[in-house]
Amino acid sequence: MREFSFSKADRIRKRSDFIRIGKTGIKRQNKNFILYYSKGLTEKSRIGITVTKRVGNAAKRNRIKRISREYYRLNRHKINGIWDMSIIAKRESAQTTSNELFQSLENIFSRIANHLETE
To answer: What is the domain range of residue 93?
Structure first.
């Protein structure tokens, strides 16, 4: 059975890590999200989520972060290897339904998984 928990070790918290991923990582984007990913520096894959004030008020920002974390928690097993990923929410994501956000994340993560399989 897979581990579905989401601990602090699964998160990117340091600004220097976000900057490193942004500079050295590969960029994928769609209507709602920008995602950078690069080789991980720890023993497990990690994710960092950025939702700026331009996206909306605190409730909207927290909703987007919650949905993104939940998607990653349930689907991280689809990405092979150890990767650090940084998700940045676009302004359009605030007006999008939860189901559409899940589909948007599914789209972007499947593109990453396909890219990693071809390497």
So the answer is: 8-118
Could you tell me the two tokens for 70?
């939940």
Spell out the residues 6+ positions from residue 109 whose beta carbon is closer than 8 angstroms to its own.
Answer: 35, 71, 75, 78, 79
CATH code for position 63: 3.30.230.10
Residue 115 and residue 38 in contact, taking contact as beta carbons nearer than 8 Å: no
Q: Going residue by residue through the chain (119 aa), what tens digit of pLDDT does each one get?
A: 456 778 888 899 999 999 999 999 999 999 999 999 999 989 999 999 999 999 999 999 999 999 999 999 999 888 888 999 999 999 999 999 999 999 999 999 999 988 887 76
For the chain, how many structural domains are there in total?
Answer: 1
Per the domain annotation, does 78 fall within a domain?
A: yes
